[in-house]
């Protein structure tokens, strides 16, 4: 195993990245937040002028690549932020520079920004030959051909995110287990074709068994029925072919899987808000959606796109979850807000959707999710597990409300 990377090495690599105006470098210009390293994964944000966020995406990608190419780095989550004045980065505190990191899957890293979720790949269902018939044009208002109900399944909820790598799948699993802890019978469907995570998150291997009548027996983990694209699509299948396959595979996973009686089926959606996601949201008979975001303001722009996407297809948003809210140092217990803090709560309030809760960035979330022992079952008394349980409780309450005719209509105040 290679040596653990240090903050100094990361900073040295970042000195090669020119600042937004092409002058100096992003380190010298004081644009970086605190750099946190846990077990070979590096997290930080770069302050930019929000008006230039799109134009500076290349700078973000360059910074991420520069860090990822360092020996000992397994992944990097780099975001652009506008919530901090350049040069006012918090004073460095001890980072949880763990013992050098393993345990992450060898597959495409969820941190890989060039990978799944950043854009819908060519051949995505909205564009490619696999575009399902009769679903209306993605982007078209009010085109919700409610998907065919799945026999035995009372409610289907989607867990979605505006972009990849924000912890959507980890949240989906812990939310599902939280719902189970509330006494519900739960299934989880991993619809993330570009980077199926359930085999890793639930330590599942193998293929589902075929039953009579062309039905598939879902796999099982922690008392939940589980189905994943990862069980059906060969890892070797090139991305470009996966898009066209997704719709038939998805409808197969809904219709042709012996789900049995379920109170809730949690669907882990592919990240993003492109055509593929919109088409999926239209095709699945969703009772509600949960949006996962990091607190950082530009990520919230993506979260907002997620909200709009569900609005377009008339699916109630049960609420927003703020993930990686605060970093808790495993050594000193100190807290720091790498990506800001409280942004999602504020955004939820602003948009009039429920805020379901916040989950800190901790080593235990990462370790347990990457080793297939989700925190809600492996350490139910830990702080993040309690946060997930509370999120599940609130989501269940919102679901009941949505099913019972929806949230109370907002009061209309007449301006004098
Ligand atoms: N609160 C957290 N604290 C620490 N690590 C976390 C937290 N949430 C998620 N992670 C880690 O971040 C990585 C990405 O998480 P995950 O796979 O759930 O994200 P995702 O949004 O589903 O990604 P993708 O879009 O690539 O599928 C994983 O290594 C996971 O263990």
Description:
- The protein is α/β, with parallel strands linked by helices and 416 residues long.
- The chain has two domains: 7-81, GMP Synthetase, Chain A, domain 3 (2-Layer Sandwich); 153-403, 3-Layer(aba) Sandwich (Rossmann fold).
- Helices cover 30% and strands 19% of the residues.
- It has helices at residues 7-14, 57-68, 168-181, 198-201, 229-232, 239-255, 275-283, 297-312, 343-351, 363-370, 375-378, 383-403; strands at residues 36-38, 41-47, 75-81, 153-161, 186-190, 209-211, 215-217, 219-221, 224-228, 262-268, 288-293, 317-328, 335-336, 355-361.
- Helix 3 packs across helix 12.
- Residues 84-145 and 408-416 have low confidence and may be disordered.
- Residues 110, 116-117, 161, 164-170, 192, 195, 197, 271, 323-324, 359, 361-362, 365-366, 369-370 line the site of adenosine-5'-triphosphate.
- Adenosine-5'-triphosphate binds next to helix 3, strand 12, strand 14 and helix 10.
- Binds and transfers iron-sulfur (Fe-S) clusters to target apoproteins. Can hydrolyze ATP.
- Residues 111-120 have a biased composition (Polar residues).
- One of its GO terms (biological process) is iron-sulfur cluster assembly.
